[in-house]
Design brief:
alpha+beta; 109 residues; Folate-binding fold; globular
Length: 109
């Protein structure tokens, strides 16, 4: 079972208390965007086997959205953090790099 720590209320919640919201750090475009940019926002997503950054909502708790870094093949959770951040905290990136040599943070377009 997947258990994630809510960074807002401090609860370690199992997946039945949470609602998945898709990939984190997706670039959103404003009203003046091109058709290609809007298509990218709507449809282009990563689907990795390995480290992935996701949005989660603590639906049966505080109700707030947060981000989680986890491995999709092992369900190993590297950490959770505020949804208002534009990239994972350095401590989470360091934790991933320590367990996955060669891994690097990719810039999201």
């Amino acid at each position: 079972m997947l258990i994630l720590h809510c960074p807002y209320c401090g609860v370690d919640a199992d997946e039945t208390e949470l609602h998945a919201g898709g990939e984190a750090h997706v670039k959103r475009y404003g009203p003046g965007s091109s058709d290609a940019e809007f298509e990218s926002y709507l449809f282009v997503r990563e689907n990795p086997k390995g480290v992935h950054f996701e949005r989660w909502r603590h639906a049966n708790g505080c109700g707030k959205w947060f981000h989680a870094a986890r491995c999709t093949s092992t369900l190993e959770v590297f950490g959770t953090y505020s949804a208002q951040t534009t990239e994972p905290p350095q401590e989470i990136k360091d934790k991933i790099s320590a367990k996955r040599p060669g891994w690097s943070w990719r810039e999201f377009a």
